[in-house]
């Protein structure tokens, strides 16, 4: 009987020690702060201002100046691109060569993708058109 009791105590001791050892196994570290996560890089929004040279259903070519140099940008246009003239939403088919535009865009995979295009109002000074389509007279 003493041997049986000693064996029982030994088994309980081993099982208890194993459970205690398992309970103390470290768990993988979980970041606690947002700063512990890798920073997500947001693509910077860029801006261009110029004159529309040509338009297709999925792109717009704009000529303008950047750092005092004449440049030409080709912007991809997708269904998410907001195109406005005044407060009215328009489509690429409403854009015409010669329109002054401001383009808000991002570089995505080596391609300039227009996020928004705003047609700037007005024409060259002294060239405002009347209802008949003729230049307005200066007074």
């Amino acid at each position: 009987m003493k041997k049986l009791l000693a064996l029982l105590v030994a088994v309980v001791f081993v099982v208890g020690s194993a459970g205690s050892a398992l309970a103390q196994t470290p768990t993988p570290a979980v970041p606690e702060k947002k700063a512990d996560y890798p920073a997500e890089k947001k693509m910077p929004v860029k801006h261009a201002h110029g004159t529309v040279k040509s338009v297709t259903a999925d792109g717009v070519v704009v000529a303008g100046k950047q750092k005092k140099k004449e440049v030409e940008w080709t912007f991809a246009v997708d269904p998410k691109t907001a195109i406005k003239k005044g407060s009215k939403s328009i489509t690429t088919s409403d854009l015409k060569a010669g329109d002054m535009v401001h383009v808000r865009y991002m570089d995505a995979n080596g391609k300039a993708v227009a996020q928004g295009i705003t047609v700037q109002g007005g024409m060259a000074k002294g060239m405002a058109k009347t209802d008949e389509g003729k230049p307005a007279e200066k007074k």
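Confidence is low (pLDDT under 50) at residues 123-139. Strands lie at 46-56, 59-66, 69-76, 82-85, 88-89, 100-108, 111-119.
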